[in-house]
Design goal:
single chain; 214 residues; alpha/beta; 2 domains; seven-stranded parallel beta sheet; three-stranded antiparallel beta sheet; 24% helix
């Protein structure tokens, strides 16, 4: 099978002290001189078009993402992109979490996922989650508390729920205590380094793919 090529071409600096190697869109830039040292560039390999991977298997439940007061529009956009890629059914934007219609910056990291993902805004997210729980939705909160359970060891009970809501909270404040009180389980991501937490959008992606078994 022939591999499709993109418009991107890799260039390498001819200055042996520099040797900077980087891609450029050949239709937009001529790639003559090194941006670091100014020496001439040598054209190398053509880039390969990104191929769409096979669709992931469908889980036995519907997964909803719940964003509790996520302040950064960039993080919200990254979460939109992850949610779309993982096949989540909806994102609940709670509290002061910016929405795509009021904060265009979200599109910079969502890359169009803000248009394909279903979302809704909820000033009081605990009330919305309590409503979901009354309809047998399993509420999982991603937070470290004394009774939290490791995400790596978490397993759904049999039979698995029809609907699951994964809650992530504000990085400085954490998940709203009112949500922690109604959560069926609080989960944490084990950490091995000096830092005790991940960026919220990264943590969301880790948790989503772990829960979906992907």
């Amino acid at each position: 099978m022939q591999i499709a090529k993109s418009n991107y071409v890799f260039f390498e600096c001819t200055n042996f002290r520099c040797k900077l190697r980087f891609p450029l869109d050949a239709e937009l830039y001529d790639g003559r001189y090194c941006p670091r040292c100014g020496a001439p560039l040598k054209r190398q390999d053509a880039g390969v078009l990104a191929q769409k991977p096979p669709a992931a298997p469908k889980p036995g439940f519907e997964l909803i993402g719940a964003l509790d007061n996520i302040r950064s529009a960039y993080n919200v956009g990254a979460i939109f992109r992850t949610a779309d890629g993982a096949g989540l059914s909806e994102l609940l934007l709670g509290g002061i979490t910016p929405t795509p219609d009021e904060q265009p910056t979200i599109s910079k990291t969502a890359l169009g996922a803000e248009n394909s993902m279903k979302w809704s805004s909820h000033p009081n997210l605990p009330e919305k989650l309590a409503e979901l729980k009354s309809n047998k939705c399993l509420i999982l909160a991603l937070e470290f508390t004394p009774d939290a359970f490791s995400l790596q060891e978490f397993q759904f009970r049999v039979p698995s729920p029809r609907q699951v809501a994964l809650v992530i909270g504000s990085e400085p404040a954490g998940v709203d205590p009112a949500i922690l009180r109604i959560a069926d389980q609080v989960l944490y991501i084990p950490m091995s380094g000096n830092k005790t937490s991940l960026n919220v959008s990264i943590a969301f992606g880790v948790a989503v793919y772990r829960l979906l078994g992907l």
